[in-house]
Specification:
Strand order of the largest sheet of chain A: 2-1-3-9-4
CATH superfamily of the largest domain in chain A: Periplasmic binding protein-like II
CATH topology of the largest domain in chain A: D-Maltodextrin-Binding Protein, domain 2
CATH architecture of the largest domain in chain A: 3-Layer(aba) Sandwich
Oligomer: heterotrimer
Helix content of chain A: 40-55%
Distance between the termini of chain A: 74 Å
Distance between the termini of chain B: 23 Å
CATH topology of chain B: MetI-like fold
Radius of gyration of chain A: 24 Å
Number of helices of chain B: 15
Largest interface: B-C, 135 and 125 residues
CATH class of the largest domain in chain A: Alpha Beta
CATH class of chain B: Mainly Alpha
Number of strands of chain B: 2
Number of strands of chain A: 10
Strand content of chain B: under 5%
Structural class of chain A: alpha+beta
């Protein structure tokens, strides 16, 4: 009997405790900022988008700004945009500062008033430190500056020198760039590789990556500045056809990036190239540490592009805009961008950094090659691309249908028609013709 | 404890006695009703605030175009119109039913077999029950991650196939591979649970029924169909209804299995693993089309309602006695008639 | 209870009463089933104790490796495991306590009292049981935002603090196991409604509370879609959401993810094994009642 009484008393106690908790935490969320009631500002980022070392410093205290602390929270990079939107919708736990990807920044344009206009905080004063095209891309069509330049994403062809060599292909970066200057030559090289290299390696992990790169080499994407759908035009069709050709020649491993299978294939030497940006370096090093020394970098077939590269934004819930802006200028100063490049392969948007000797260190993962030799010129030659707020809605069907073609053997022409139809339907719902 | 297992009789008598006494002996007017009303009120208050209000609000939202941040725009029935034309939505409906069928049918069959096997065992029954129930207790997220690695191209499942000389299967990269993988996870999770419920149903059958059948000269098979099957029907109905409601709301398996940094990957290659709830979540909370998500919620509700009713009719329809099919029948079986 | 029934009734069915061979086959089949049931857990331990390279090796490595503690320590370094665990425990414990309290109180009233609207209210209870939660995922989120509860544990605890299933099931139990004589005796002593509930009904409800408690606890612990939607503060999530995030963030470090999965699974299995006897017995009773 005694035991029973205890149980019931405990039950009551816990219930009352619950009611107390209810009352307590109900009032905590009122200010809207994720950092409300703390001594720091909150920053949302994804793994690899900011320097871990600098973040650790900022967590203890931003140098030169007494009392200012910034604490980062890691969000998966595919989620960050929707998480920020969700918190804006809830008007609670909105980060003071957040990282936005290059194509995601535009998706915030319709809600530009949720972000602070950085010009009101004195952004113009540091303008000449940054790449001009990157700076211009921080503005919404109405002229509000909602982004601050973080990194750039110059692209390159990553390839396995050893496999190229064994297949009898050109294998030194300079030779590869000269003898494989176009996507057509790239495909031809892939066929040689598949036929002659040991283990019959695939040229690419999946065709979606090539589709992405060919697209980024065009200044036009899926929706133009007048909100017209242009995804059914030649520049997209060419990217599509090249991707399908890769598949037809059986040069693609058909593996989704970031899956366990991808990791196994990269470390097992089953995929011989990667067509991506500079920021992928650290991911590759993590995924396939044993392949160190076998990789090289060279110019992308048909020339470089800018893939990704991010921005920092301040939300309107930011508790201390001046301090937050001071943090941005500290974190993204030329000196710290240089550190971020060395640590995280985040390519600086501050041209002053490029000449620094520290940018020109050899990387043993690439057999002593200096990545800057490839990415530096690429950053300058990349075409300036227009991203509409509806870009993601428009291009998602194309990526999905390419996956269908690759994984499920769907007829490419039917897949193309379906992609165009789905994109048009989706866009018409969003008010884009 | 036998009374708990007894499905009829006692409660009604109990209830009548309670009500008679309630009327004659309770003190003073209406105030005596206050404590019991107060006692039942928390559920109804919570339901009004967190159930009814959101449901009505979702009707309102489904007539709006809203990203959750800016202003709402009234669009009338357009969201429903778009939804009916949305091929991905119908694909997700089809996927959901395919996965539901692939999982529920084998799952109920295996559970029934397992229940019979367990019923015939005398030793270690407690240990068996725990072992078979554990899959149901563990977190779906964790186990989906485990199954995800097993079904990877270079994973354990294909290693086993390779070891016996077969070709690997594209478990996570082909239409039926994806559906089978999700179905296998569901089967693994629910067979034990349903087997234990069937077992309870079996154990509730009075021994006399079997003896009567034996006296009549019935063989095992006749016993199964004449004695066991009718007695198990309510339990099977319960399991079938529960599996339908759960099956049409599959989310976690598909979401975690194809979780990736790339938004287009939701639901896996060809979106063959895209389920209704996953699509709802994607539209509402990844793409922030709140009105569209609300409209989809209503269609999901309609689909579940229709199939639950069909389910009741199928399982209880052939009954000739007073158990009429449909809501009334189920409520009666649940004991509503005894309510007064 | 259940165990006694079995020994008497099993003789009635053909299986099991057959030859020695049949019995061996049955036992073999059952053991095979147990292996299939438990294998994923074993495989989880194998993966969590190996290296990422081990996981996709051919032929696969089928025995646990030496890296378990190392991997677990890396989980602790990478994510706020104990913070998420704490949140999950708070939700599961408080949520379960509230459900037990409110459900048993309502069940007591439904089972033993007459009051206006009782029939209607009880009917409504069953109808609400049929409404899928996902129907109103969007408006529920908006409601929480209006309450200022988005991102707070309240959003996970309060809306499900009383549920139709529990009330229905407890009422059924109360009708059968709570003798009127006891209540009458209490009334003679001058006890009112709540006193009778507290001193007479609740102690007798214990077996039913144990079942409902574990059932609710498991449900709250494992809930995924709702915390995923409503816990908008990335520094304050439940174990399930934290694990899903770990899975995306560290997809190239599989032994780390697996160690995280293992750590998230263990606490609940321990709770279940402690309460398994009560739970499985009452699950059976609950199911046949439904």
């Amino acid at each position: 009997m005694e035991h029973r009484t205890m149980t019931r008393r405990r039950l009551l106690g816990v219930s009352l405790g619950g009611a107390a908790l209810l009352g307590m935490s109900g009032c905590g969320a009122s200010s809207g900022s994720a950092s409300a009631g703390t001594d720091h500002l909150s920053l949302w980022y994804w793994k690899g988008s900011l320097s871990d070392t600098l973040l650790a410093t900022a967590k203890r205290g931003v140098p030169g700004m007494p009392g200012l602390k910034v604490q980062g929270s890691q969000i998966p990079d595919g989620d960050i945009d929707s998480k920020v939107r969700t918190s804006l919708a809830a008007r609670a736990y909105v980060p003071d500062i957040t990282v936005a990807n290059s194509d995601n920044l535009a998706t915030f344009f319709p809600d530009e008033n949720e972000f602070l206009d950085l010009r009101t905080l004195g952004a113009e004063a540091v303008r000449d430190r940054y790449l001009d095209w990157k700076w211009k891309s921080c503005f919404t069509p109405s002229g509000r500056m909602i982004g601050f330049p973080l990194d750039a994403g110059p692209t390159a062809l990553y390839y396995r020198r050893d496999l190229f060599q064994k297949a009898g292909l050109p294998h030194e970066p300079q030779d590869v760039a000269e003898e494989i200057p176009t996507w057509e030559k790239f495909i031809a090289a892939g066929r040689t590789l598949r036929a002659k290299a040991p283990g019959k390696p695939y040229l690419v992990s999946n065709i979606g990556n090539v589709f992405q790169q060919v697209l980024l080499q065009s200044p036009q994407q899926f929706v133009d500045a007048d909100n017209r759908f242009i995804g059914d035009q030649q520049h997209v069709r060419r990217a599509w056809d090249l991707s399908v050709e890769l598949l037809r020649r059986r040069l693609s491993a058909g593996i989704t990036d970031g899956t366990p299978d991808f990791n196994a294939a990269m470390s097992g030497g089953r995929v011989a190239t990667m067509t991506t940006a500079v920021w992928a370096i650290n991911g590759l090093k993590d995924t396939a540490p044993k392949t160190s020394g076998t990789w090289r970098l060279t110019t992308m077939p048909d020339g470089p592009a800018n893939y990704g590269g991010s921005y920092l934004t301040l939300t309107r819930y930011c508790r201390d805009p001046e301090a937050a802006f001071a943090f941005l200028t500290w974190l993204l100063s030329p000196a710290n961008q240089l550190k971020s490049y060395q640590e995280m392969a985040l390519f600086p948007t501050t041209p002053a950094s490029y000449a620094d000797p520290a940018m020109h260190t050899p990387d043993p993962f690439f057999g002593g090659q200096q990545p800057i030799d490839v990415f530096g010129p690429a950053a300058q030659k990349a075409p300036v691309v227009y991203f509409s707020p509806y870009e993601e809605s428009a291009n998602t069907p194309f990526f999905q249908e390419l996956t269908n073609v690759e994984m499920l053997g769907k007829n490419p022409d039917r897949a193309w028609r379906d992609a165009v139809n789905t994109a048009e339907t989706t866009l018409s719902r969003l008010g884009v013709s | 404890m036998a009374t708990v297992l007894d499905p009829t009789g006692a409660p009604a008598a109990d209830e009548r006695r309670a009500s008679r006494r309630g009327r004659s002996t309770a003190p003073g007017g209406r105030r005596r009703h206050v404590p019991p009303l107060l006692a039942v009120s928390p559920f109804y208050v919570l339901f009004a605030v967190f159930g009814t209000f959101p449901v009505l609000y979702s009707l309102y939202l489904s007539f709006q175009d809203w990203d959750g941040i800016g202003d709402m725009r009234f669009v009338g029935l357009k969201q429903y119109g778009w939804l009916l034309q949305d091929s991905v939505f119908w694909h997700s409906v089809l996927n959901t039913f395919q996965i539901w069928f692939l999982s529920t049918v084998p799952m109920l069959f295996l559970a029934l077999v397992l229940a019979f096997l367990l019923h015939s065992q005398v030793r270690f029954t407690g240990a068996y029950r725990v072992a078979y129930f554990i899959p149901n207790v563990t977190s779906m997220v964790a186990m989906t991650i485990v199954f995800g690695s097993v079904f990877a191209q270079a994973g354990l499942a294909n290693s086993v196939l390779r070891a016996v000389g077969l070709d690997g299967v594209g478990w996570l990269s082909s239409e039926w591979g994806i559906k089978s993988s999700v179905a296998i996870m569901i089967i693994w999770r629910w067979v034990g649970y349903n087997a234990l419920i069937f077992l309870a149903g079996l154990q509730a059958i009075p021994t006399e029924h079997f003896e009567a059948a034996r006296v009549d000269g019935a063989n095992s098979r006749q016993t199964l169909f004449r004695v066991v099957a009718p007695q198990l029907r309510p339990v099977i109905l319960f399991a079938a209804v529960t599996s339908t409601i759960n099956g049409l709301q599959i989310f976690t398996e598909s979401q975690v299995l194809f979780q990736s940094t790339d938004i287009g990957s939701t639901g896996g290659p060809g979106q063959e693993g895209m389920t209704i709830v996953l699509y709802l979540w994607q539209k509402a909370f990844k793409e922030h089309q709140f009105g569209y998500g609300a409209a989809m919620g209503w269609l999901l509700f309609a689909i579940i309602a229709i199939f639950t009713i069909i389910n009741w009719r199928l399982v209880s329809g052939s009954d000739r006695d007073d158990r009429r099919p449909g809501i009334a029948g189920l409520l009666r079986r649940k004991g509503v008639r005894d309510g007064r | 209870m259940a165990a006694d029934d079995r020994t008497t009734s099993n003789a009635g069915i053909g299986i099991g009463s057959g030859s020695r061979l049949t019995r061996i086959c049955v036992r073999a089949a059952l053991l095979l089933g147990v292996l299939i049931s438990l294998f994923p857990f074993y495989w989880l331990v194998v993966m969590a104790s190996g290296t990422t390279q081990d996981i996709y090796r051919y032929p696969p490595k089928l025995v646990p490796g030496p890296h378990l503690l190392d991997n677990m320590r890396r989980v602790l370094d990478t994510v706020d495991f104990f913070g998420s665990l704490f949140n999950t425990i708070v939700v599961a414990v408080l949520g379960t306590a509230l459900v037990l309290f409110f459900d048993s109180l309502a069940a007591f009233a439904f089972a033993k009292y007459e009051f206006p609207g009782k029939k209607f209210l009880f009917g409504m209870l069953l109808v609400t049981y049929m409404i899928p939660a996902q129907l109103s995922l969007v408006p529920q989120f908006v409601t929480m935002a209006e309450f200022g509860w988005a991102g707070s544990l309240n959003a996970l605890i309060i809306p499900s603090a009383a549920n139709a299933f529990g009330i229905f099931w407890m009422r059924q139990y109360a009708q059968n196991s709570l003798p009127d004589e006891l209540l009458d005796a209490g009334r003679i002593d001058g006890a009112g409604f709540f006193r009778l509930y507290w001193t007479v009904a609740l102690p007798l409800f214990r077996p039913a509370l144990a079942f409902l408690g574990i059932f609710t606890f498991i449900g709250l612990w494992n809930d995924y879609i709702w915390p995923l939607v409503v816990m908008i503060n990335p520094d304050k999530v439940t174990l399930q959401v934290a694990l899903a995030n770990l899975n995306v963030l560290y997809n190239s470090d599989y032994s780390l993810v697996m160690a995280g999965a293992l750590m998230s699974v263990i606490p609940l299995i321990v709770v279940f094994l402690i309460g398994a006897r009560h739970f499985l017995r009452d699950l059976a009773a609950g199911a046949t009642k439904m």
